[in-house]
Amino acid sequence: MVRLLFSFFLTVVVTPVQLIAAPRIPADAVRIEKDPLGLRVSQTRRFETADELKLLQAGAGVLQDLGFTIDGSETKLGLIAASKTRDATDNAQRIGAIVLGAIAGVDMSVDKIQNITASFVTRPSLKGNILVRVMFQRIVYDDRNEVSRAEALDDPELYTQFFSKLQKAVFFRAHEL
Amino acid sequence: MVRQTLMILSCGMLIPFSACAPKNTGVFDTEQSQLTLRQIQSRTFDSTNKNRTMRTVIQTMQDLGFAVDKADEELGSISGIKLDGYAIRMTVTVFPKGKEQMLVRANAQYHITPVVDPEPYQKFFAALEKSMFLAAEEVD
Question: Cβ contact (<8 Å) for B83 and A72?
Fold first, then answer.
């Protein structure tokens, strides 16, 4: 009888309340990053030019070089948004899933594709130069087409490579190569 | 007998929850009054330069971890997404208010839920206020 009443309580009271209760935004979601300077520095470079349009054009060219397609832009605000979809297969993860399946009979999902986005923003300063900040993010989908990861790409090496290419592209544009 | 009664009672009470959702469910978020929501999501800033205010909004969003993916200067809108194990999408609009102020309004959604708590907006506007001050002082 007690068990019946308990299951009645669970079904009729708890479940609807769980369905209705809205998930709360994480406390740190709207907060300046823990290491704002570190991240900001790796994502930002200063260019000694006053020609914002040429810098945006160079940025679009580098994004194309890296396989991104441009999704949108607003030159008056110095923005280019781009994205690409790529294979996210990880052989180590795949082998792990096969081994786990063979040993424990667990059907583990593995990463399949990833959607990578780039946000390229220019900001002129009154000193006559321009700051460029680029941010990369990605959403990884598994072989069940479910999101397995949604993250910002914060490896400084990634940004070093990007800005190295951008510096070259700016040089090429300046010399019309 | 008791068991059967409880079963019937449970099923009867669950019927409203299991009914098919009407087509327009979730199309409009109207849980809060329009005025309350606008008050939570809006601030005015002393500025006469819309472009500069919008660029400062973009910079603030970036500092908060949002990658800006859409902007329209004429409309005054900026949208971005933050991915950090979760997804938050935010749109900020900037409109001139009178001759010396800009009205900045933000609205966000966390996964599939609209953000209606005042706290995240207070934090956003606090960060924007700092950036507006630094931009006025021309600090990078």
Answer: no
Nearest to B127 among A32, A46, A71 (CB): A32
Give the pLDDT confidence of A9-57 residue by residue, as tens digits.
544 444 444 444 556 778 777 776 566 567 889 999 999 999 999 999 9
Round to whole Å and give the CA distance between B104 and B60. Answer: 13
Q: Output b/e per residue, A126-150; b: 16+ Cβ within 10 A.
A: eeeebbbbbbbbbbbbbeeeeebeb
Q: Measure B41 CA to nearest chain A CA, in Å.
A: 14
| Cβ pair A12:B14 closer than 8 A | yes
CB contact under 8 A, B69 and A81: yes
Q: How far is CA A87 from CA A27, A113, B110, in A?
A: 33, 5, 27
- For residues B89 and B79, the answer to whether their CB atoms sit within 8 Å is yes
Q: What is the CA radius of gyration of chain B?
A: 21
Asked whether the ipTM of the predicted complex exceeds the cut of 0.90, the reply is: no
Residues of B in contact with A136 (CB under 8 A): 67
**Whole-structure pTM value:** 0.81
Q: Which of A4, A77, A126 lies closest to B6 in CB terms?
A: A4
Task: Output the six-digit token pair for A110.
Answer: 């593995």
